[in-house]
Specification:
Chain lengths: 280, 280
């Protein structure tokens, strides 16, 4: 449960830090970023997990997401995990959307991935323990993410409703079992038996189980990847199940960090309202 | 006065754009970024210039500065120029603090720099014309910047008080004629006669001429480059001249973009208040 400080910078009265720690789950040293708001000086604060998209590390949203200002106002910590194990000894693929930078938040069961690519367990269990053991946070968690990370946030929350109090997503890969952003990776990591895939498809999981609270989804109307993201599948299930929540189709916005940055305020507020009212 | 669109992304209801244009002043194609707030749909808006520091391009503050949210709220455009001419045919130096990425906002008079390194004229005259001719902005300008860009903002404003209504800086190189961030570059670009340097030292310019309005300076107390920045020289002159303004020494903050991001809100508000009351 030890971790090493890579950097700590004062930010909005709190601290924007980067840490690394040995990961038993992934078999390598893993890096993550954490924003600790100023309120943590007076006692532990709730945690918002932000899962990043394809090609990202812990750094992208830390630098470009714009969450810190709002997290500092609302008194919640933000954790930015990496999107995969990394390093010379870790399997990889030349494509941007498989291997390092593209863990898809699953536990791989197929070679060469199964040795290190266990991002589902890493997020749900190991990094959660590292964070709660080492940082001034409550064991009260919300989760969000963008694109592949939106997929990760939704599927992880839907399968672990006892561990997360709130969930939202920015432009999530909403139906990966029916998308080229999903079928390729689920096949590589989990094998060709598609019954193993449904645990990693938020549209299927929501149809099966629903979600205990409400859900916030933001999607850019001018997103260049709409055909791969398939928000209509998730929106359809939400409407048919009468699932409380909002699916907001944001006119003119694309898939970039400018979209995330613009609506970071709303998502942080959404989670803060739900996390602060959780008894702990 | 033509320019080419490199990218345009919806951002906080406005547009975050990147443009390029042929520069007569610098003799190469130059790239800059511009945030246009939503209010520009209803008529031209004032301009805030943000000059970046050593090693930066137009991209760094566009992605990490956090100005767009506040500029969208206050209805002002933000222009992010590059910090030097660039390209294979442009002189350079192996050091990070000379040549490409380190223009220091002067007009070089010495070889090999004088052919392209004319960032003073580029900002004050050419890019200003390109911006006002092509973008939905008023000819009403404020200027700020960070580190080398703080030096640029202060010296350009102090020498052109008829062209700028407001000025501020983040951790500026405040007294370059007495700093290793300054003496090396002014010598290379302008030659060894130090009388030519004083036009590019905000401490000297302020002592000579003052500034028509008030000045906002933010400086991190934990800035790793304090000895090179010399805020005490500028603060001393401001106090002796009874120059209206604020010099804020911000406890715990370093030289990073987390510092800039934290106080971007205050600087945008400072400029917006002064620019919106300017008759045009």
């Amino acid at each position: 449960m030890s971790m090493e400080v890579i950097s700590e910078n004062r930010c909005y009265g709190g601290v924007q830090a980067v840490y690394s720690h040995p990961s038993n789950t992934c078999g390598v040293e893993m890096t993550f970023a954490a924003f600790i708001p100023p309120q943590a000086k007076d006692g532990p604060v709730p945690v918002l997990w932000y899962l990043s998209g394809l090609t990202c590390t812990h750094e992208n949203a830390m630098n470009k997401g714009g969450f810190q200002e709002h997290a500092a106002r609302h008194g919640i910590a933000v954790i930015y995990p990496d999107t995969s194990p990394r390093g010379d000894g870790v399997a990889d693929d030349q494509a941007y959307d498989l291997g390092q930078g593209a863990g898809f938040y699953v536990n791989a069961t197929r070679d060469p991935w199964r040795r290190n690519f266990r991002m589902y367990d890493y997020i749900v269990s190991e990094l959660r323990s590292v964070v709660t053991a080492n940082l001034p946070v409550q064991d009260v968690h919300g989760i969000t993410g963008h694109s592949m990370g939106g997929h990760g946030a939704l599927t992880i929350a839907l399968r672990n409703s006892e561990l997360f109090e709130s969930v939202s997503a920015f432009a999530p890969i909403a139906h990966p079992t029916r998308s080229d952003w999903g079928r390729k990776q689920l096949s590589a990591y989990l094998g060709d038996d598609e019954t193993a895939w449904s645990n990693h498809d938020s549209t299927i999981l929501l149809e099966q189980n629903g979600w205990k609270g409400d859900i916030l989804i933001d999607q850019g109307e001018a997103d260049q990847f709409l055909d791969l993201l398939k928000p209509e599948a998730l929106a359809d299930v939400m409407a048919r199940r009468r699932q409380p929540g909002l699916v907001r189709m944001q006119k003119g916005y694309d898939h970039s960090y400018y979209f995330i940055n613009t609506f970071a305020c709303d998502h942080v507020e959404w989670h803060a309202e739900r996390l602060h009212q959780t008894r702990h």
